[in-house]
Write a structure and sequence with these properties.
The protein contains eight helices and no strands. The chain is an all-alpha fold. The chain is elongated, with a radius of gyration of 17 Å. The two termini are 25 Å apart.
Length: 115
């Protein structure tokens, strides 16, 4: 499994003060299944990933976008520097993104167009 995704899920579980055993009970799987996911030895299917995100109260879309941003960007026809800029932009918070957009003169874009 993607290392960023593993970290996001582990961090979300811990922030919810859930043990792996708690999550295993909620999903009706064995405790070592959760451990295997968090150690990158196995992957949850997409339905289970959605359930995990609901349990952890996190957005599946944003977690997946962040986890796979590099792969998405690398498939674009842009220069190496442009790819680095896109990847860095996706990692900053909303305030940082607003600053970047303002400095590029793109401050009047609707939220939908920014995505």
């Amino acid at each position: 499994m993607n290392q960023i995704l593993i970290e996001k899920l582990r961090t979300a579980r811990i922030s919810k003060k859930l043990r792996q055993e708690d999550v295993a009970i909620l999903l009706d799987v064995k405790k070592n299944t959760i451990s295997n996911w968090e150690n990158g030895k196995a992957n949850p299917d997409i339905d289970t990933l959605v359930k995990l995100c609901k349990i952890y109260d996190i957005s599946c879309a944003s977690v997946l976008e962040e986890a796979y941003a590099d792969q998405i960007v690398h498939s674009l026809s842009v220069s190496g520097l442009e790819k680095e800029i896109i990847i860095a932009y996706r990692k900053v918070d909303d305030i940082g993104k607003a600053i970047v957009l303002r400095s590029l003169g793109i401050e009047n874009i609707s939220q939908k167009e920014k995505i």
